[in-house]
Design brief:
The complex is a heterodimer.
Chain A (H helix, E strand, L loop, with lengths): L1 E10 L2 E11 L4 E5 L6 H8 L7 E7 L5 E3 L5 H6 L3 E3 L12 H7 L2 H6 L5 H4 L5 H19 L14 H13 L5 E5 L7 H16 L3 E5 L3 H7 L2 E6 L2 E6 L1 H6 L1 H9 L3 H8 L1
Parallel strand pairs in A: 3-8, 3-9, 6-7, 7-8
Antiparallel strand pairs in A: 1-2, 1-4, 4-5, 9-10
Helix pairs in contact in A: 3-7, 6-7
Chain B lengths: L1 H23 E6 L2 E6 L1 H22 L3 H32 L6 H26 L8 H18 L3 H23 L4 H21 L1 H4 L5 E2 L20 H5 L5 H27 L2 H11 L1 H6 L4 H27 L1 E2 L6 H14 L4 H29 L2 H9 L4 H15 L31
Antiparallel strand pairs in B: 1-2, 3-4
Helix pairs in contact in B: 1-2, 4-10, 4-13, 4-14, 4-15, 5-6, 5-7, 5-13, 6-13, 10-11, 10-13, 11-13, 14-15, 15-16
Classes of the chains: A alpha/beta, B mainly alpha.
Chain lengths: ~270, ~450
């Protein structure tokens, strides 16, 4: 469903991503891994419209056959029309708004359509109240899924770190995406939280949403991904199932060469 | 304690350096030119004030941050609870005020309400959307001149021109917004500041249209369902229709109720918008623009609507200003007006409707009320001292403003009524402590 072809991103003289091609299948969890500085987040930013790629194409196909050339679309359309949601490496919640409000902001476009350009709703003449009830139901569904329903009315900034991570995923899911891009969702989580996260991601996949995942935690990657793409220095060095990638000498060399033995050990485990 | 003392001494030294020349030296005209006289006592008083003030501030700061957050949240909840009584009480006072029959108070209250309305309008841009606008007075000017020119050129009445003035101001808000909204924070502030000045300079120099520095005179007064407030008491006037003696106070009171209604309209619309996707998107924009974009919110359009809505109410207020004064000139639309309105919003607490209203009452009406109180005391006690202070008070207006701002920023850095009420809740709404709420980076 996602087809990246010849993606190149240059920052001045630096080639962060060098003619990268890979594909992500519908209903699968695709992980992008690689040593620090391999260009994973840059690829993400290109897919979600935060960077405009220097060269190459990124095409997303919806189940109904509509195609979206993501490399040419303005950033907000990638979320609203192409239905690609993302989370951030450093959590970006609306800290001063409640958990529930965070999830409603994510449904902005659908709710806004019900307000008659905002004017009718101010006068109390639109079908907005009904739309809001539907939106709150969807928010409630995801709050149940992440176990934060009891804290729905607390400010997002006051939640513990692990809960904030889960909330950010729930918020991204509230735009009802076709593809969810997660930038290191397990960073900073303890083993128990990490396990909960795995369950949440599998549940999201179960609801028919495809996932694209950047991750350092090999425990998460090896356990839940269906497909792994390995990057090093902006180039793809391996691509396949977790078993294939784990056995690939190029991957082992890249990780050992970068001095990230601990992750390799985890991968072996 | 030792550190606090050293800190206070340092501040006192800085104050001495600053105020030494400004307060400590006074020029007195003599027969042959000016002489420079020292004023040691005044300087000592100022420096001592700074010393003890600093000591107080430092000792307050010793408390832990956690404690402060908890206390501020409790305070915010108490204020919101109090607000439920204060806001209706203020409204009752506002409605009942003209029955005192005092022209002085009604005039003063009209002025205060104009600033309340401007504050509420700017609160949408600065408080909700987090866009720092230093040129809000431009929209006020556009509204005022739109009404004056439309009324005089096409002979239209106030009530026809009012929406037009608002729409024109909103249009200018969008025109300003388009090129500017890619900028953030300080850059946005500077461009809006420049925009305010551009509008004023254009008005000053486009003499053939706006009359330049001479302004526009004889702007028509508003009517009450077609009845004018003219003094002849004929059939087409309010006095003639109701069979009462014509008096200026009738028009003054009518104008007062007009601005009260306009201000309440501003308040109602912003409160409604806050609970809807648009208002929520503004607040989300203030919290995190990047996250907004990742959720599919069109950031540019959302910012534009905030600018346009704020400008709309600025335009309404401008049209009212023009019809009330019956005379406008570029002098009424200087930067100090923008700064005053912004100070009201910041002092009141970004995003807080009640706070802005209170801040406007204190900043615009407070000094006048204090002066009234002092002269009343002076009359009662026959005291020359109070009479003297009351007479001199207007001279110290800016000094008192400055002091009020400094004291507020020390005691309540997030404004009079800080904290945020959630726009929607599953259970009971809980106040959000101001420390968590972002202030916007443009």
């Amino acid at each position: 469903m996602l087809e990246v072809r010849g993606l190149t991103m240059r920052f001045g003289g630096l080639k962060a991503v060098d003619s990268l091609s890979f594909a992500a299948q519908r209903g699968e969890i695709t992980a992008v891994i690689g040593p620090n500085g391999a260009g994973k987040t840059t690829v993400f930013n290109c897919i979600t419209g935060f960077y405009r790629p220097t060269e190459g194409s990124i095409v997303l196909t919806h189940p109904d056959g509509t195609t979206f050339p993501l490399q040419r679309m303005p950033g907000h359309r990638i979320a609203s029309a192409a239905k690609v949601a993302r989370t951030f490496q450093n959590i970006r919640l609306f800290a001063g708004m409640t958990v529930l409000e965070n999830l409603l902001v994510a449904q902005h476009n659908r709710l806004m359509a019900a307000t008659g350009f905002g004017v009718l709703a101010v006068l109390g003449l639109s079908r907005y109240p009904k739309a809001e009830r539907v939106a709150i139901d969807l928010a409630r569904h995801w709050l149940d899924a992440i176990g934060l329903i009891a804290r729905a009315d607390d400010p997002a900034g006051a939640l513990p770190y692990g809960a904030q991570r889960r909330l950010e995923i729930a918020r991204a899911m509230c735009i009802e995406p076709e593809l969810l891009c997660l930038d290191e969702p397990a960073a900073g989580l303890n083993p128990r939280e990490s396990e909960e996260l795995n369950q949440l991601l599998l549940k999201i996949r179960g609801e028919g949403c495809s996932l694209l995942l950047i991750e350092h935690d090999m425990g998460v990657v090896m356990k839940i991904s269906d497909h792994i793409v390995v990057l090093d220095h902006g180039k793809k060095i391996s691509d396949g199932t977790p078993q294939e990638v784990r056995a690939d000498p190029a991957v082992i060399a890249a990780y050992l060469g970068e001095g990230e033995e601990d992750e390799e050990v985890e991968a072996e485990a | 304690m030792k550190a606090a003392l050293r800190d206070a001494f340092l501040s006192a030294a800085v104050a001495l350096g600053l105020f030494g020349p400004m307060v400590g030296l006074v020029t007195t005209p003599t027969d042959h030119g000016l002489t420079l006289d020292p004023r040691p006592i005044a300087t000592a008083v100022v420096v001592a004030l700074v010393f003890f003030g600093r000591l107080l501030v430092v000792s307050r700061r010793a408390r832990s941050r956690q404690e402060v957050v908890g206390r501020n949240r409790a305070l915010a909840e108490a204020l919101t609870r109090a607000g439920r009584f204060v806001a209706p009480a203020l409204l009752v006072v506002a409605i009942a005020l003209p029955f005192t029959g005092s022209r002085y108070y009604v005039d003063l209250a009209t002025l205060v309400l104009t600033y309340v309305m401007l504050g509420w309008g700017l609160n949408i841009v600065v408080g909700l959307a987090g866009l720092l606008d230093l040129g809000y007075v431009a929209f006020y000017a556009v509204g005022a001149y739109s009404y004056a020119l439309l009324a005089q050129t096409f002979d239209l009445g106030f009530w026809t021109c009012l929406p037009l003035a608002g729409i024109l101001a909103a249009l200018w808000g969008v025109i300003l917004g388009f090129p500017v909204l890619r900028l953030r924070g300080d850059y946005l502030a500077i461009v809006t500041l420049a925009f305010g000045e551009i509008i004023r300079v254009v008005i000053t120099n486009w003499v053939s249209l706006t009359g330049g520095p001479n302004g526009i005179v004889g702007i028509p007064r508003p009517t009450l369902f077609g009845l004018s407030f003219s003094m002849d008491g004929g059939p087409g006037t309010v006095a003639g229709f109701f069979g009462i003696e014509p008096a200026t106070i009738q028009r003054v009171i009518f104008l007062y109720y007009v601005i009260l209604a306009l201000a309440l309209l501003t308040n109602w619309v912003s409160l409604r918008l806050r609970r809807q996707p648009l208002g929520r998107a503004w607040e989300a924009l203030r919290e995190d623009e990047v996250a907004c974009r990742s959720l599919g919110i069109n950031v540019t359009n959302t910012k534009l609507t905030a600018f346009a809505t704020g400008a709309l109410f600025g335009g309404f207020a401008g049209a009212f200003f023009a019809t009330r004064q019956a005379f406008i000139s570029p002098e009424s639309f200087t930067f100090i007006e923008s700064a005053t309105v912004l100070a009201i919003v910041v002092l009141g607490g970004l995003g807080s409707q009640l706070g802005v209203a209170l801040a406007a009452v204190v900043m615009i009406g407070g000094l006048e009320l204090l002066r009234g109180l002092l002269s009343w005391l002076a009359d009662q006690m026959g005291s020359d001292l109070f009479a003297g202070i009351a007479g001199e008070l207007p001279l110290y207006r800016m000094l008192i403003f400055g002091l009020a701002l400094v004291v507020m920023m020390v005691l309540r850095p997030r404004g009079l009524v800080s904290g945020r009420t959630p726009s929607v809740a599953l259970g009971a709404r809980k106040e959000i402590a101001a420390e968590l709420v972002a202030q916007g980076r443009g």
